[in-house]
TrEMBL record:
InterPro entries, alphabetized: CheY-like_superfamily, NreC/VraR/RcsB-like_REC, Sig_transdc_resp-reg_C-effctor, Sig_transdc_resp-reg_receiver, Tscrpt_reg_LuxR_C, WalR-like
Residue span(s) of domain Response regulatory: 4-125
GO molecular function annotations of the record: DNA binding
Protein name: DNA-binding NarL/FixJ family response regulator
Organism in which the protein naturally occurs: Arthrobacter russicus
């Protein structure tokens, strides 16, 4: 079984390089390419890829708006929608946050190592989120106020520990090992945290932790 991927970027040379990388992997398949947001929306509906690599900076319909439209179309058809990884050259807070709010499963800098890009595609396909530490560290941090501990008062001490580990980018197996818990227990804690904080995804949880300066 191969992961069906749609590649969206306005630079043909970049697309060609990524396509060659994808086609070198037996479990990954590039089913289509788009050079702008409008093409991305059309091809997402036609090809139904499982993962989309979405450039955020494109002329016309940019990656943020294309992400929103693709997810809206999927919801209207009763489908879960593809997993979208936002690709960015610059650390643009608003664009990255907007993409995640509109349904992206995470983001990568275009300078990411090829091995990390491939691992990220496989991770989001399995339902995980991808947050690049060096990019994320620059988000939400124009100033460095004290952590907002009141925002997590509803969480238990263990849930606070899990939240911080999730926010640093660890997956459930790593969190389980670090806290000497089972993966099932970690999943239960994550569900409880999301419910108490009125969040829906791990990406939103990471965003919340940075906005509240809990990792300061």
């Amino acid at each position: 079984m191969t992961v069906r991927i749609l590649l969206v970027d306005d630079q043909a040379l970049f697309r060609a390089g990524i396509k060659m990388l994808l086609e070198s992997q037996p479990d990954l398949c590039c089913v289509g390419e788009a050079e702008d947001g409008l093409q991305a929306v059309a091809q997402a509906a036609q090809l139904q890829p499982e993962v989309i690599l979405m450039d955020l900076q494109m002329p016309g319909l940019d990656g943020v708006l294309a992400t929103r439209e693709i997810m809206a179309v999927a919801r209207a058809k009763g489908r879960p929608g593809p997993k979208i990884i936002a690709l960015t050259t610059f650390r643009q807070d608003k664009a990255v946050l907007a993409a995640m709010r509109n349904g992206a499963s995470g983001y990568l800098l275009k300078t990411a190592d090829p091995e990390f890009l491939l691992a990220s595609i496989r991770a989001v396909h399995k339902g995980q989120s991808v947050i690049v530490a060096d990019a994320g560290g620059g988000l939400f941090s124009r100033a460095a106020p004290a952590p907002d501990h009141e925002s997590v008062e509803r969480l238990s001490a263990r849930e606070k520990e899990v939240l911080l580990l999730v926010a640093t980018g660890l997956g459930n197996p790593e969190i389980a090992a670090a806290l000497f818990l089972t993966e099932a227990t970690v999943k239960s804690h994550v569900r409880s945290i999301l419910a108490k904080l009125e969040l829906k995804t791990r990406v939103q949880l990471v965003s919340f932790a940075y906005r509240k300066h809990l990792l300061s």
